[in-house]
From TrEMBL:
Taxonomy of the source species: unclassified sequences, metagenomes, ecological metagenomes
InterPro entries in alphabetical order: Glyco_TIGR04440, Nucleotide-diphossugar_trans
SUPFAM superfamilies named among the record's database cross-references: Nucleotide-diphospho-sugar transferases
Secretion signal, residue range per the UniProt entry: none
NCBIfam families: glyco_TIGR04440 (TIGR04440)
Protein name in the entry: Glycosyltransferase 2-like domain-containing protein
Amino acid sequence: MRTIDYYRQINVSILIVDSSSVFLDKELPVNIKYLHLPNSFFGDKIYTALCEVSTPYSCLCADDDFLSESGLYFGIRYLEENKDYASVQGNYVHFEYDNGLVNYHPVYAETIGIKDVSSNNPIDRLMKSIGMKHSFIYALHHTETLQECLKTVLDMKAVSFVEKGISIISPLHGKHIILPIFWMARDKERYSEYFSEKG
């Protein structure tokens, strides 16, 4: 699996949370742990996983995304230096193969550069966050903040409700910023044949 191959190379702790019915029977590197929660709702499985986390910061990542190690370290440093911020993220790119070449395209191009939700008033932060296209779900959060966000969406079946719940609750806990740094690469064609176990 390409995600495991990628994350084995970077110095972060990874927790794979799997709600499929099939257990992943694969030897994992020391920095990656596996939690099998078959048939769990998205928010429920993430909340359960966060209860296993002992680090002060957590970042969610889809299985077709690749977080930047330097982006994560920059985000951690930012949160440590700015205690009034609940979350931080950077810029995203899509990638796809086309005739043997890899093409990259910015995602959320309108947010490239520093964008923040920095009012001291939680309601003002909430109102500003509602107008943003950038979801907070894949931002780096204080672990406790992310747990509180997910408590509000337990038992919700729709993934979009979980995403919205995080984006609504997180700014009530603190400020948010999108920094002009590379944060994550996302496969534009999810589960593409060219990324199969064959190649």
